[in-house]
Amino acid sequence: xxxxxxxxxxxxxxxxxxxxxxxxxxxxxxxxxxxxxxxDGGKKNYCLNGVNxxxxxxxxxxxSVARYSxxxxxxxxxxxxxxxxxxxxxxxxxxxxxxxxxxxIFAPILARWMGARLILDLHEITPEFYMSKYGxxxxxxxxxxxxxxxxxxxxxxxxVMTINEPIEDLLVSRGLDRSKSTIIMNAVDEARFxxxxxxxxxxxxxxxxKFVMMYHGTLTSIYGLDIAIEAFxxxxxxxxxxxxxILGSGSEKDALAQLAQTxxxxxxxxxxxxxxxxxxxxxxGQCDAxxxxxxxxxxxxxxxxxxLPEFIVAGKTVMVSRLKAxxxxxxxxxxxxxxxxxxxxxxNTMIRVYRDPQLRSQLVGEARRxxxxxxxxxxxxxxxxxxxxxxxxxxxxxxxxxxxxxxxGI
Length: 410
Description:
Blueprint: E1 3-11, H1 16-27, E2 31-37, E3 45-48, E4 51-56, H2 65-90, E5 94-98, H3 109-113, E6 117-121, H4 126-134, H5 141-156, E7 159-162, H6 165-173, E8 181-183, H7 190-199, E9 211-216, H8 225-235, E10 242-247, H9 253-262, E11 269-273, H10 280-284, E12 289-292, H11 307-313, E13 317-321, H12 324-329, E14 336-338, H13 343-355, H14 357-371, H15 376-403
Parallel strand pairs: 1-2, 1-5, 2-4, 5-6, 6-7, 7-8, 9-10, 9-12, 10-11, 12-13, 13-14
Antiparallel strand pairs: 3-4
């Protein structure tokens, strides 16, 4: 049976992009192994929806550059040893390495010598990520080093995957050969989403709320939930019966609760906490509009969050920051844009969407139409075609090797 290995320095269960790819391969008849991080209390080895997951107990306690470096080095070494050992048994045709870090693509170098083809899936653009996270300048030695590592990693990979066209254009400007690049966008698996929606537990808190806005995801500063609460405080008098539900956990949860209380929104802002991913469709079914108040900077301007397709597939109006990558795919007639980092502009957008049901309906319809060319069904086929192409290249290389062996063809 054909075999593929996925490598990701993250907990597999909560990485929707890697899970979509792995499960698509299983459905297409592949044996799929994943090397990933072990969740707290998780098993060393387990099978999830047909995917064999092997984990390293390393944790994810990042914060300082030193801690990042330690985790990257430890996972790299484990992968460097584990992949060739598994390749001896599985005979992987393709190994799909997911960043961060970019240089993780070098970990399966021995498996490459054994015939496997390598894909580098650039989930993030590393130099911009570090500029955003640590406030370092573009001309700093750290960013120059990261840009160099990105360049040699892209060159080493047999194929490179990017998550949207603006990121691909940026990488091409830094040396990526566009002919070896494939765009596989973050898009919700609609079949799985629909199945989850049917089995989701009912949400009981709607109460007297006439209009519910919702965010679901990690509660960190970059996602701008404080901006959304400030905007709601400005807009609340014009939005009687409106509520804002925030699903998720993260470092900003307590600060957001305090901000809501300070702004007199304790009864209108509901910090729900962490919700299982299988229950998200049920929650989305209870809201009227999604809010994605992502901050803008050199990194986040390229963001295309998984949450955006989920709102669209659920048929919800989306209020979203005017960011470069999102605007590349969706026009003003599909999403309710507002200027990033601007609570007042978001407040005006909230009021406009709240007051106009016809506008909400028009936005939902157009968003679905513009989403159609990038939905998961299309991305999945593109990914499977890429893997098949690399399999064919591997098989061709094997035939040439046998043909050149002494005695062949005599």
